[in-house]
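[step 3/7] inverse_fold.run input=structure_tokens len=377
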């Protein structure tokens, strides 16, 4: 049976069960009712489906959308309300709200090749027969529809791997709109959420640095997407290089109103190519002193006197605790900047990035963007 006949099809797996009572049920199925003895046919089918996925992981990992769907996604992002007009404040933001992200998903097919600090990625898990079988079986037990996204989540759960995240375009839209930024610098452009959000939030110029060739190509593909308005996309420019190689170019630019970024979380996410900061500076002390601090200070120097510096960071735990958010705060303070606003996106699940409180990781799944201003302002 072709994998495409099962994935994203309601009751796609459940309708194969011998126990017809579960063919059209939306609730969970007890594991005792899904044993190989009771359901030999569905277990054999799952083995076949897993083998097909292992042979061609893209069938599970790549999300493609038509031009019409991408155009509608853009319009949804445009219409997304992010400001309370009565109080001139940012509305509550939830990670489950993803306008604009079908565009990002379509143009970033290598997203699931990003590995954790142990070198494990969703892509590598999708090439393990037993792991894929477990994920399909878990999905069958828990969900009526074998959505690709849910099976990917099951892959991560069965292997103890948390998800890679994309900065929500709606959050970037809110940040840019609230501060009225017209020129935005993103030293770590990433998957494009901040780029799209900045453009719909009112920015007249966005400049992003991206060292990974595949990700930079994806960003350029977004800007050239015929589903998106060319006049707006023309306001963005991608420099395919790490920010530490871009200073001479950036210093020729007109000063920026805003730095809006989410830097690499040291060794939390290992990207697919290009000169990555954690490769060049492999120890925490090196990385902070020789990459993080020069990057923050270099960006601050490119801002207008009234500019704002916005960083989405957390203290993280991988092989040990790394106080990333604390370091970002320290560097800003020592440079003469102070925290003015914290913008929270609830429901985010960046791997290893639960809040670190009193040296312990909590289960809270919030992702925060910290906004700094010069102390004299």
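[step 3/7] decode complete -> sequence:
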């Amino acid at each position: 049976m072709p994998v495409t006949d099962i994935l994203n099809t309601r009751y796609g797996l459940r309708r194969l069960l011998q126990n017809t009572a579960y063919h059209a049920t939306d609730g969970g199925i007890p594991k005792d009712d899904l044993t190989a003895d009771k359901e030999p046919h569905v277990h054999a089918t799952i083995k076949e489906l897993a083998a097909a996925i292992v042979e061609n992981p893209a069938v599970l990992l790549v999300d493609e959308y038509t031009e019409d769907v991408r155009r509608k996604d853009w319009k949804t992002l445009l219409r997304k309300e992010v400001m309370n007009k009565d109080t001139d404040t940012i509305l509550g933001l939830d990670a489950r709200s993803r306008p604009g992200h079908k565009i990002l998903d379509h143009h970033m097919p290598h997203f699931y090749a990003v590995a954790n600090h142990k070198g494990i990625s969703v892509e590598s898990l999708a090439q393990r027969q037993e792991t894929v079988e477990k994920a399909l079986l878990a999905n069958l037990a828990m969900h009526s529809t074998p959505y690709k996204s849910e099976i990917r989540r099951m892959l991560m759960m069965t292997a103890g791997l948390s998800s890679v995240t994309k900065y929500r375009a709606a959050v970037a839209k809110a940040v840019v709109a609230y501060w009225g930024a017209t020129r935005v610098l993103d030293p770590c452009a990433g998957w494009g959420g901040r780029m799209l959000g900045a453009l719909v939030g009112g920015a007249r110029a966005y400049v992003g640095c991206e060292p990974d060739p595949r990700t930079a190509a994806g960003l350029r593909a977004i800007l050239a997407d015929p589903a998106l308005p060319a006049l707006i996309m023309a306001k963005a420019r991608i420099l395919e290089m790490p920010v530490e190689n871009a200073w001479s170019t950036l210093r020729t630019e007109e000063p920026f109103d805003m730095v809006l970024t989410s830097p690499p979380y040291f060794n939390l996410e290992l990207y697919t190519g290009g000169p990555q900061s954690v490769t060049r500076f492999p120890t925490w002390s090196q990385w902070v002193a020789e990459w993080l601090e020069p990057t923050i200070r270099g960006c601050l120097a490119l801002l207008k006197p009234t500019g704002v510096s916005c960083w989405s960071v957390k203290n993280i735990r991988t092989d040990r605790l790394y106080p990333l958010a604390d370091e970002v705060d320290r560097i800003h303070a020592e440079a003469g900047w102070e925290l003015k606003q914290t913008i929270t996106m609830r429901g985010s699940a960046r791997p290893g990035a639960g809040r670190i409180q009193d040296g312990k990781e909590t289960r809270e799944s919030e992702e925060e963007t910290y906004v700094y201003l010069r102390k004299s302002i």
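[step 4/7] annotate
The first strand starts at residue 83 and ends at 84.
The longest helix spans residues 284-300.
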